């Protein structure tokens, strides 16, 4: 048995995470050449493949978070994606400038925290206020994988 407020809180969590991904994805689209250059500067392999995939993951992932579609598998996938972007994009251990290193440390651990939020969505599911919730036969908090 779930409390009615649970689905509202889960919706707010999904929307908060979606803002990050939608904003990031749209900014990548608007500044695509700069994003590709950034990935190249970080030594990301296969940039011509990685850049469009990362952009699509952020835009589509953000949209799926908003509508609450396939949240359990999406939560697990986006947790892994967020950790991968932390390691590749916020590699503070390679920074010698103290100010920039501090900034990268904050961003790295921010990504770890965001991944934790995605893991919670993996456990809870999308809640009733979602496509997953509407499709759930029992109308519970989440949906099955």
In short:
The chain is 75% helix and 0% strand. With 145 residues, the protein is mostly helical. The chain has one domain (4-135).
Note the main attributes of this structure:
single chain, 145 residues, mainly alpha, 6 helices, elongated
Question: Which helices and strands appear, and what pairs or packs with what?
Answer:
Elements: H1 4-30, H2 32-41, H3 47-67, H4 71-89, H5 98-124, H6 131-135
Describe this structure in words.
- This protein is mainly alpha-helical and 145 residues long.
- 75% of the residues lie in helices and 0% in strands.
- It has one domain (4-135).
- InterPro entries: DoxX, DoxX-like_oxidoreductase.
- The chain crosses the membrane at residues 12-34, 46-67, 74-93, 113-131.
């Amino acid at each position: 048995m779930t409390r009615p407020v649970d689905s509202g809180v889960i919706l707010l969590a999904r929307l908060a995470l979606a803002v990050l991904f939608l904003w990031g994805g749209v900014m990548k689209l608007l500044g695509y050449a700069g994003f590709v250059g950034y990935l190249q500067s970080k030594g990301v392999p296969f940039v011509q493949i990685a850049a469009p995939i990362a952009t699509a993951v952020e835009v589509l992932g953000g949209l799926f978070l908003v509508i609450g579609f396939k949240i359990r598998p999406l939560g697990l996938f986006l947790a892994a994606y967020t950790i991968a972007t932390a390691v590749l994009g916020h590699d503070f251990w390679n920074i010698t400038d103290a100010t920039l290193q501090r900034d990268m440390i904050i961003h790295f651990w921010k990504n770890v925290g965001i991944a934790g939020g995605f893991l919670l969505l993996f456990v809870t599911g999308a809640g009733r206020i979602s496509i997953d919730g509407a499709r759930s036969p029992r109308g519970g908090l989440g949906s099955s994988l």
